[in-house]
Amino acid sequence: MENSKAKALRKRLDSKILKLVAPFEMSIEEYKIQCDLNNIDPSVENGMFLHWVMTAGGDDVEVVEKVENAIVNALERGYLLDTSNAAQCEYFCDAVCDLVLKDKLYCKRLLEAVLKNYASSSGYAADVYEYCRRLNKSIGLTSVGYFCNRGLSEMPV
């Protein structure tokens, strides 16, 4: 995906996630200001923020599911990860590792999205693909990409 288009889609994802995670009594602008005051960039391009939204649970199951679905959808569409942002990719991998024990179904969805959509990636996203492929080979959450680098759909019959 083109870099400028992916960046614009990540900004839209930021808005969607911020609407979901901002405290009920705060507007999105107030939440952004609070984040800025605490030296937090509330953007998925910021690895720490991405890690937090990926791994933070919550009492409101509906909100958690919406955030998870938004992240998986962004992965499936190929715009979540910035191929030139090492910190974002490292935090993403760390979040996936944390989710292995915390939420296996969500982790499986993340691994499948990475293994299906980032196999031919370049830059740091290629490292994310390789990390997720190896993690999946060691724990076996999904059969996608389990037996070879190309994924099961491309294996000879």
Structural overview:
This protein is an all-alpha fold and 157 residues long. The chain has one domain. It contains seven helices and no strands. The radius of gyration is 16 Å and the shape is globular.
Which features would summarize this protein structure in a list?
mainly alpha; 65% helix; globular; disordered C terminus
In short:
By secondary structure, the chain is mainly α. The chain has helices at residues 3-21, 28-37, 47-55, 61-77, 86-102, 104-117, 124-139. It has one domain.
Order of helices and strands: HHHHHHH
The number of distinct β-strands equals 0
Distance between the termini: 31 Å
Give the total of domains: 1
> Please, how many helices?
7
Strand content: under 5%
Q: Characterize the largest beta sheet: strand count, sense, and whether it forms a barrel.
A: none
Shape: globular
Helix-strand makeup class: mainly alpha
Low-confidence stretches: 149-157
Percent helix, as a range, is: 55-70%
Radius of gyration over alpha carbons? Answer: 16 Å
Mean pLDDT: 88
Outline the secondary-structure elements:
Blueprint: H1 3-21, H2 28-37, H3 47-55, H4 61-77, H5 86-102, H6 104-117, H7 124-139
Helix pairs in contact: 1-4, 3-5, 4-6, 5-6, 5-7
